[in-house]
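Practice problem: predict the structure.
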Amino acid sequence: MPSLNERFLVVPCLLALLTGCSGAADTPDEGEAKPSSSTPAGGLGNILVDGKPVTGSKPSGIDKIPYIRTYTDGALYAPVTGYRSLAFGSAGLESVFKDSLTSRKGDDVETTIDPEVQKAAFGALGEQRGSAIALNARTGALLAVVSTPSYDPETFSGNSPGDREAWQRVTGDQGKPLYNRALREASEPGETFDVVIAAAALDHGLYDTPDEHTDGGSGECADATIREALARSCNEIFAKLAAELGEEKLRETAEAFGFDEELSVPLPVTPSTFGSYRNGTITVTVIQLARVAAALANRGLMAGPHLVAEGTEDQITQSVPAATAGLLLPAVREKTEWAPTDYDGAPSSWSLVYGQTEKGEPVALVARMTTSNAGAAARVTAAMAEALS
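Answer:
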């Protein structure tokens, strides 16, 4: 598989604010912004989680830009907030909403994040390289966006020697903490793509139900139903289904689920690609897999995923017919373990399960961890499911 561009170009500007230099960090994630020159009357606007600010501001001692950004639980929310630095620019929601956050009024930005679900995923991932998404299937609200290892944006929010040292540590870290794996890391899907193949097989009439016996496989997979093939990880069955469908029908279903789509939540998302099943050039992000799972739980309807509570237009598209989604959902729910994949020489553990909000709305929970332990990611989704209840 082609590797992702994860390079970090560091262009520090020691006197950015005092000399007018506009140097900032070029990262592969949420973009960058020049240090703001606005002067909000009461400090910077805040990014809110469950109505409470997870950012703050303090006097900088600089007339041109009088406030420095502070963060509460900075590492926990860094994949959401991004950073705002006097010397290194901004990223994440700090960059997307820089104008409103730094306006004289100092407008706040309310996110859709559920703090308990975010904390549960973050704690379960630990320092392991990985990511997790919790997506409300009905509304499209992102309840958790977690990427590890993470970083504390407050450690380089100023322009002191200590800030520069912290920046160098973060950008030089081989774990790439600035890289938002939940939204940006597109890797080989492995058997998680079997869900798309199964949906295509039902949608295009190869089988009327997931409980019809297929023709193929061996051992316990011999002539297995689609439901059994999912549960038993019957790769031969899904390879045969893919061959019978052909590339175009597979592509049609994959694109209906959002593959090859340019997406913003409003943070940019790396497109999941359907290159060729035959040639093994399919990639998927954690958020894209969550979209597929959420669509099945919402009668085939895909609600546009979003991270900000207000000002988000409802974007509803039909992925597969409601009948197909209804037939396939129970089989996907019964799948308890996904075989590890290999990406750039590193094994990955996947998990895809469902939870529900207090209102009874279905939530797609997806996690990926860089480990050969097949059950590692499942512990992350289990923690998120428990936090939802």
